[in-house]
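ok so i was messing around last nite and threw this chain in just to see what happens. nothing serious, just curious
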Amino acid sequence: MKLSTKIILPIILISALLILLNGCQVATVPDDSPGYTPGTTTISGIIAAPCCSTSSAAVSDAPSDWCLQCEQNWFLQKNIEVILTYEGEKVGSTTTNTQGEYTFANLSAGDNYVITAICPDNEGYPLVKDVVKEVVDGENYDAGITDCESTALGILVDALVNLGISSEYIILEDIQGAAKFESFVKALCEVLEDCGDVTADDNLLDLGNSVLMEILGENPGWTGGEVICVFNPPDDPCIGVPPPTANAGPDQGFVVCPGTNELVDLVGSGSGKGTLAYAWDLDNDGQYDDSAVQNPQDVPFGVGVHTVTLRVTDQCGSTTDEMIVTITESAVVTANAGPDQSYEVCPGTTKDVDFAGSGSGTGALSYEWDFDDDGVYDFTAQNPQDVPFGVGVHTVTLRVTDQCSSATDTIVVTITESEAVTADADGPYGPYEVCPGADALVDLVGSGSGTGLLSYAWDLDNDGQYDDSSAQDPQDVAFGVGIHTVGLEVTDDCGSATDSTTVEVTESEAVTADADGPYGPYEVCPGADALVDLVGSGSGTGLLSYAWDLDNDGQYDDSSAQDPQDVAFGVGIHTVGLEVTDDCGSATDSTTVEVTELPALTGATFEGGPFVLCVDFDKDIGSDITITPELDGVPGTLMTLDYCVNSCADCTCFITITDSGGGAFSLVGPTTLRGISEGMGYITITYTRITSCGEESVESAPIAVAVEADAFFITDNKDSFIGLDINEVDPCIEVPHNANHIFFGVSACIDPETIVEFKYDRSHCGGGVSEYKRAYGGVIDPTMINLCNGDYTYLTIRIDGLGGPEYEFAIYRLGPGESYGAGCPL
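result:
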């Protein structure tokens, strides 16, 4: 890390590492340096300094306490050698780039690395220094830009190391806090910026030793005692003698032609002790070896700003003075022959071309032209006029000469021969369709190319004479039916050309009309009209118009729209007509519109039931009942009650309990009944048709619903409900006289895997004996069993099929006037 907070400008280094100890006697300290091992750290920074030939960009905008003459003396140092030392040992070297930047890599951890820049002038001397306080493995450090303070710290650290102080004991803050440190930095700046010799400045040496004495007295690593320094022995004859003076004369400036030098006379003067010696540095290389005379004469200087330094030496010392010789090169002569030029000419002709030349330079200018590119400048006017050129690409050169030299400029004059004139009559035109006996009015389009202004002439009647129109694009030219040849002639400055095409005119076809249709049939509610969109089309010549006869009265006066919308028609078949008219005539077409009335709901057929429920069980009858609606007496599509309730788009159904049998059952869903107690009641089904005309409904006849807890039962035609107990001995059942037939039923609660069959025997009263028939749970079998009047009818139930148990019931129908007990003992 950099020890100074300055971040902008570069500073110069002192030219030796231990100049401050020149003449000092110190005690020795054992050298216990552990040596150096590479590591993983990187140090980078920027070298800036005065008084070295490696200077590049100047430094500006520096803080006043950073350097004393920043803008005049301080520069970034390019391609300068930079040496890195640790504990007095060289551990690496590199070279700066054009921006003064350097980098050291693979460094190990340590304290107080010293960076020294070496100026190549005078066989190489230390220029500026910097110090990195502490380096930790794996981290990168930016040392910043060298300045006066970083250089002072580097000098003092090197001095302490050379005195035997280990780097780890050197504390930069102690150095910066020394009483004479700031004075030492300022004095160092003055010497560096004056390009002076730091070893010869008594004040600088004294201040440096004062800082060292203070630091060594406090440093725990110093055991060598006091530092004793002696400057300027008492017998020096020059003590108290002022330095000599030097005057290199005033600055001088000259203007020369490009590529030449100016011979300059210099005048030097000075004063001092004893004999004076004059030495000149004429090439600003820091060496006073270019002239030893007081007043050098005819010194050649090239273009540029030259710093010339005179050194005057007397018995006690020397002094220098600078002056500036500025050599400015006169402006280079220029020539401008003008822009390139291009022209088009008719075949076999030339073009007279005008030129405008210009230039700049020193003194009077002369102009010379080479028009044929032979290297000979044979025309001397500045602006030649009417120079003839034939077809081709010509190189023309202008040479302008001033008092120093000459310059040339070349342009190109391009002469091209024009293309032959062309004509284009466009087309072919048409075919154009016209009514019989009419002409087509045609717009013609002409074009062409050529040299100069073009003129147009048309032959419209094919007589070979281009005298019918001089317009480029004749308009509304009348042509009858047929194919006509027309010609166009185009004339330019060089000649003419022709082109021909055709115009085709045909006679139009007869107009046509199409009323589309037939339309419908459309269904409407009773008493309503159908609103119909009609579609008309046609073909013909020019713009077509449309007219409709919508009431079939022979007059096309009901609508002028091509496609009449929402035309009202009542029930019936209506004839409509369309008339289409074009530029030439008209045509008609007719069609029909059919409107019918929606059918009415005239009834419905309901099938399904009666139903047997089991106490405490639900039964969904949605798929057991079917409905067939009748529209105008015609049966429609059969559907289930479930479809009607849940899926029908234009209908709906619902169940109504008309007699619950004293609460024997209830409705627990749209199509679901629930048995509550034994008994019998009725339901009805209502079918509702939904149309655009409204709703129509029809209701079914009552459907019996029986609720049974027994496994088997019978019901008679008087709605009596009688359970059958197969465990009863000699079961006998009496029914009233007016119950002339019965039905057998199986309870819905029976196991659906159980096979139940029944048969009846009426043989003793003139009837027959039936075969066994399968009966199913939850359903009253539709087989009607007629009963013997005043006698027994036997009903046999068989369970589990052939070989299964059989149970016989005697059913006695009371005769006229008989009361209960007549057939079965009470």
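not much to say yet. The chain is about 5% helix and 45% strand.
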